[in-house]
Design a protein that fits this description.
Layout lengths: L1 E6 L12 H8 L4 E6 L12 E3 L7 E3 L1 H12 L6 E11 L2 H7 L4 E6 L7 H6 L3 E4 L9 H12 L32 E2 L2 E2 L9 H19 L1 H5 L1
Parallel strand pairs: 1-2, 1-6, 5-6, 5-7
Antiparallel strand pairs: 3-4, 8-9
């Protein structure tokens, strides 16, 4: 898979993509992540990428030309399955969305900043808009990193144990059941005996019941869906 990220601040991704699962996936050749600085496609020597909005109002808006030039440059070399804009008013990122995106070959992600981007980019150049929650951040870099992590970790081979992702929360519209490790007894807080029984069938039954109960208590909307 190839993920190309368009941003004004590529350095914000340095630490995120150099550790843990994403690092291993890159080293295995499972994913290639490229960062492109939109300023490199500006029209003037000052590398201007924003301007005042028509009609007035507070805040600056990212201009259409630098973004379009960057996109056209990349599209001349790669055929993209999705061109995604990270936006608070996009569709909500869910596990199902991440699962679907992980099956694609080439993805472009645009990170907005300031007051947003020229609307014509959204109308004519973007194929999908995704939100990580009903709140506003300073830019799209953190949401793009979240989306990338959600996608990469479920690419076959990214996890040491590929079955691990199948038991994650939301994979089956349920929250994950509680998990425990050593020691068995800590300050009188003991691991449920069923998990030490060795009865795989009963353990799976218990885990499913716990997942159902936890979902009912914490995220009942998932059961309604």
């Amino acid at each position: 898979m190839q993920i190309d990220i368009l941003t004004l601040f590529p350095e914000m991704f340095d630490g995120t993509f150099q550790h843990s699962i994403i690092k291993r996936a890159k080293e295995k050749g499972l994913v290639v992540i490229n960062l492109y600085n939109i300023r490199d496609f500006a029209l003037d020597k000052h590398k201007s990428v924003d301007d005042y909005a028509y009609g007035g109002g507070a805040g600056m808006v990212m201009m259409i030309e630098p973004i379009s030039r960057c996109m056209e440059h990349l599209k001349s070399k790669t055929q993209y399955d999705e061109i995604i804009y990270m936006s608070p008013d996009g569709e909500r990122l869910t596990q199902k969305v991440a699962n679907r995106l992980s099956t694609l070959k080439n993805i472009m992600i645009l990170c907005g900043h300031y007051k947003g981007i020229d609307e014509r980019i959204r109308e004519h150049l973007i194929t999908r808009e995704i939100s990580i929650g009903d709140y506003v951040l300073s830019g799209g870099e953190l949401p793009a990193a979240v989306l990338t992590d959600a996608i990469v970790r479920i690419i076959p081979g990214a996890l040491n144990d590929e079955t691990s992702a199948l038991s994650d929360s939301f994979q089956d519209d349920l929250l994950s059941p509680p998990v425990y490790t050593h020691p068995y007894d800590f300050n009188g807080w003991k691991v449920p005996d069923i998990l030490l029984s060795g009865n795989d069938k009963e353990i799976k039954k218990w885990q499913h019941e716990q997942a159902m109960e936890r979902t009912k208590q914490r995220r009942p909307g998932l059961l309604e869906d």
